[in-house]
Specification:
The protein is 38% helix and 17% strand. By secondary structure, it is α/β, with parallel strands linked by helices. The protein has an 8-stranded mixed beta sheet, with helices on both faces. Strand 3, helix 2 and strand 4 form a beta-alpha-beta unit. The radius of gyration is 18 Å and the shape is globular. The N and C termini lie close together (9 Å).
């Protein structure tokens, strides 16, 4: 059934301003669990409503499941939340394979198989969104896809290659100090030199294991793609270009936000998620 613009706007408004009584009492979080794949000990949380639709959260580079902290109490009222720490990030170890977008997607698929979850939706932030595009492209079990600040074109490297090539531990400590501190506090094999090299290779990968490019046109699930209006890592023209491979994708440019729109404008992002949940 075709959804009108008025219906979408009404749903978004209701979602933004509905009293949050249920959010005041979020589901108590369970401790992290692990499973092993390609020699990595991969940590994940399985929280929220056990009888609700599954939503898998994929965080950004040098992040963890905490990237979604501003939305977790609200998400837990609607979904069973699966939130892994990507290999080499958070509490997860690297294992014996390179960190690539293809590997993140494969790790995610293996986790869902391990948990026996046949259908699910994906919510990916930054690198997690890039991997989520790959997973949704290759897996018809994906019911809906949400990305925030997620590059998908190899062509996006044209403007970012010099920055990514300069990545080293000193750069990460200076520009992502809070994320570095959190990583070093919890990772059992914390090695910022190794992680910096892995992230540089991940972000500069313009090959088959990297950005999915036009192949995302194979995605059949509804898509909501979001960026902060000041996001220099994910340009406005790349957001708009999504309508070439995905003409029915829903696009949102969040005002008063940069790359971390989830943390910077959680109410606006939540309103969009609610409209997307209700109307697609």
């Amino acid at each position: 059934m075709k959804t009108s613009r008025r219906t979408l706007l009404t749903a978004a408004a209701l979602a933004a301003f509905t009293p949050r009584l249920s959010e005041a009492q979020p589901t108590q979080e369970k401790p992290m669990t692990t499973h092993t794949y390609h020699d990595a000990i991969l940590h994940y949380r399985d929280n929220g409503k056990t009888d609700a639709p599954a939503l898998l959260l994929l965080h950004g580079g040098l992040g963890s499941a905490d990237d979604f902290a501003a939305l977790l109490p609200r998400l837990q009222t609607h979904y069973r939340l699966i939130a892994p720490d990507t290999r080499g990030h958070g509490r997860s170890t690297f294992g014996d394979v390179p960190l690539t977008y293809a590997q993140i997607a494969d790790d995610t698929a293996q986790l869902l198989h391990h948990l026996g979850i046949p259908q699910y939706s994906l919510f990916g932030f930054s690198d997690g969104g890039t991997a989520a595009y790959r997973l949704a492209r290759d897996n018809p079990a994906v019911e809906k896809l949400i990305t925030v600040g997620a590059s998908w074109q190899p062509e996006s490297l044209k403007d970012m290659r010099e920055l990514y090539a300069a990545i080293n531990p000193a750069f990460l400590r200076e520009n992502m100090g809070a994320q570095v501190a959190a990583y070093e506090a919890v990772n059992p094999e914390a090695n910022l030199d190794r992680l910096a090299e892995a992230l540089k290779a991940l972000w500069l990968d313009d090959g088959d294991s990297g950005y999915p490019g036009a192949s995302i046109g194979k995605i059949r699930a509804p898509v909501l793609a979001i960026r902060g209006e000041g996001d220099f890592l994910f340009a406005m023209h790349e957001l708009l270009a999504l309508h070439t491979p995905l003409p029915n994708a829903h696009l949102m440019n969040v005002p008063f936000a940069e790359h971390e729109a989830i943390a910077e404008q959680p109410d606006l992002v939540w309103a969009a998620l609610q409209a997307f949940r209700v109307c697609t």
